[in-house]
Automatic annotation (TrEMBL):
It comes from Halioglobus japonicus. The keyword Hydrolase applies. SUPFAM superfamilies: alpha/beta-Hydrolases (SSF53474), DPP6 N-terminal domain-like (SSF82171). This is S9 family peptidase. Keywords: Hydrolase, Protease, Serine protease. Gene3D superfamilies: alpha/beta hydrolase, TolB, C-terminal domain. Pfam families: Peptidase_S9, Peptidase_S9_N.
């Protein structure tokens, strides 16, 4: 950026120069003190079992980023096993062995590499992949000898399927070349290692499951239809090897658990047709005799156990009310580990004892007790599920828009922060959020978290209501929320801010374009400011997938539409103070999206704070950066939202 406006910017840095701030005032020590306890909340998410089921591996943070730890007993100490400067992700146990595979990138660039670690050996983790391309979605064969994974190694753009003998990583070979720019990834090996289930994610409403014969190289599509798109996500081969499990919405509005024979042309059996909600998490036991699956019931999780042979299931009744994040069966099939999150507890790991019958179970035991900075989380504000009519309710649009409302203690009217999720197909759920709680406590602000049209969890019709030329209808749902706020006596319609990241960042910018006269402040985190430049500059391996959601900028009519709805092209309508937060290495929403909106706002004299972390990507994962960003956000709201 050049020019007089940019030359007058006041720049400061923090964290050894890795965090660059422009026009962000010094953060008062009082804010740092007020937030310190909230910023020291931890979690402990289940990753994998030890091979003898005598312990668990969890992801938790005791330094700056999350690492792998081992827990050997309920409430036991967490023994750290990895010590990297970057967070460790996607951990998998090697079948029949103590080794772990995991992925890790550098500086948030998402060029993940696959590593092999022998816990307790004293040896460093071994790099298995090329060190340059994006390599991920690793799946072990049942013998524990090979992994299948996706890689952009061939040309940097295509997600191809590769297989590697982990003892001979230099001999890795590509077994399937992507014929297009869409997203391909492996699902599961057959028991004899000859066949591989793999999937093609064309778009969030169009995904297909394929079978690859590794001996002949022949492949065929088992589920999905290009002419009648549906969402199909593979789980794995069944216990007989003659069929496979997957989730699909081909038979209705919600994703159901289904079983299907491997014979081409056979029809699927829809197992959960009587459950009117999404099945959003499925795990097979090691012997494939039972399945655990979760159902998203209006944001809350309900766990079920299923007998895979009889194809009958039963609800698990003794879980805390909240959201199930991850799960996995023990190698001996006698226990099920769960990561549970509630409005009053961060993500922690629990173990459910399983009975001899596939659908029977016993006690639930909490294994980890994550630190919460000395806070009394029992006193945290729990959200209320509300709904409000929108501009086209009763006219072909949604009957209502669901939202979570967190309201401070005391009497209003309270200032309001509207927090908009990304995706756009994500879903706001009643997660534990130390961020929302610190806003409630330190700012006295109510927090509204809407699931505007396009959100996941409410059926494929609702999720498709914002696609293509209907993009701004979701922005109009925020306008309807502002109307609803005006009807609430305990909410202050004169003091409302919008906050969001990624696609939620676009929603923040678009809301500022359309509703600046009804807003006091806006925080845009890694947001899209121009859909055309975003699609042209996002990483090659993501581009076609994003075109399926937002539209193809190469089509003249769609390009004109995308330009028309891009906030950058209506920046003169933004008349609200803006805080823009970005990561320099973001492969999804490039830093250029932030740079151009900041420059345009400055050119028209609009107040704008800008923060860019040089060692981060799509969102901040390093605690030292995240702490300052959260403190600056509170200061921004104090200066621009709370003032009358």
């Amino acid at each position: 950026m050049t020019g007089p406006a940019y030359a007058e910017v006041e720049r400061t840095t923090a964290n050894n120069g890795q965090l660059v701030m422009e026009d962000v005032p010094p953060i008062p020590e009082q804010i740092a003190r007020d937030l310190r306890r909230y910023q020291n909340v931890r979690s402990a998410s289940f990753l994998a079992w030890t091979p003898t089921a005598d312990g668990l591996y969890v992801s938790t943070r005791f330094g700056d980023v999350a690492q792998v730890h081992k827990v050997s007993a309920p409430g036991g100490a967490r023994t750290q096993l990895t010590f990297f400067d970057e967070p460790v992700r996607s951990v998998q146990s090697r079948p029949g062995d103590s080794a772990l595979s995991f992925t890790m990138d550098t500086g948030g660039n998402e060029n993940t590499q696959i590593y092999l670690l022998e816990p307790g050996s004293g040896e460093e983790a071994k790099l298995l992949t090329d060190g340059e391309a994006l390599n991920g979605s690793a799946v072990w064969d049942q013998a524990g000898e090979r992994i299948a994974y996706r890689s952009t190694r061939r040309n940097g753009a295509s997600n191809d399927i590769w297989i590697m003998d982990v003892d001979k990583p230099d001999e890795a070979k590509m077994v399937f070349a992507s014929p297009d720019g869409t997203y391909w990834y492996p699902i599961d090996f057959s028991a004899d290692g000859r066949f591989l289930l793999f999937a093609n994610l064309v778009g969030n409403a169009d995904s297909r499951i394929h079978l690859l014969d590794l001996a002949s190289g022949e492949h065929q599509m088992l589920a999905g239809d290009p002419k009648n798109p549906s969402s199909n996500a593979g789980v794995g081969f069944d216990e007989t090897g003659q069929g496979f499990w997957y989730t699909t919405d081909m038979a209705g509005d919600f994703r159901q658990l289904a079983w299907q024979s491997l014979e081409v042309g056979d029809e699927p059996m829809f197992i959960t047709a009587d459950i009117p909600w999404h099945v959003d998490g499925v795990r097979l036991s090691e012997d494939r005799g039972r399945i655990a699956f979760a159902v998203n019931e209006n944001g809350f999780s309900q766990l079920y156990l299923l007998d895979s042979a009889k194809k009958r299931y039963k609800a698990v009744k003794n879980l805390p009310v909240g959201v199930l994040i991850s799960m996995g069966f023990s190698p001996d099939n006698k226990q099920l580990a769960l990561t549970l999150n509630t409005p009053n507890t961060p993500s922690d790991t629990f173990v459910l004892e399983l009975g001899r019958k596939a659908t029977s179970y016993g006690d639930l035991t909490r294994w980890t007790f994550s630190e919460v900075g000395g806070l009394d989380t029992a006193g945290f504000i729990e959200p209320e599920l509300i709904s409000y009519p929108t501009f086209d309710s009763g006219k072909g649009g949604p009957d209502a828009i669901p939202a979570w409302l967190y309201k401070p203690k005391g009497e209003g009217p309270f200032p309001v922060i509207i927090s908009i999720h990304g995706g756009p197909e994500a879903q706001a759920r009643p997660y534990f959020s130390s961020t929302y709680q610190l806003w409630l406590e330190t700012l006295g602000a109510a927090v509204l978290v809407p699931n505007v049209r396009g959100s996941n969890g409410y059926g494929k019709a609702y999720m498709g209501m914002d696609n293509g030329f209907k993009r701004e209808d979701s922005v109009r749902d925020i306008g309807a929320l502002l109307d609803w706020i005006a009807t609430q006596e305990d909410l202050d319609t004169e003091r409302v801010a919008v906050f969001g990241g990624s696609y939620g960042g676009y929603m923040v910018l678009a809301s500022a374009v359309h509703y600046s006269d009804r807003l006091k402040a806006a925080v845009d985190i890694v947001g899209i400011s121009n859909f055309v430049t975003f699609l042209e500059n996002t990483k090659d391996y993501r581009r076609d997938h994003r075109r399926a959601e937002y539209g193809d900028e190469r089509d003249p009519d769609m390009r004109a539409h995308l330009q028309a709805i891009s906030p950058l092209n209506s920046v003169e309508k933004i008349q609200v103070p803006m805080f823009v937060v970005q990561g320099e290495n973001d492969p999804r929403v490039p830093v250029s999206e932030a740079v151009q909106i900041v420059a345009a706002l400055r050119d028209q004299g609009q107040p704008v704070w800008y923060m860019n972390a040089l060692n981060e990507g799509h969102g901040y994962r390093k605690k030292e950066n995240r702490d300052i960003y959260q403190q600056a956000t509170v200061l921004f709201f104090q200066q621009f939202l709370l003032r009358n």
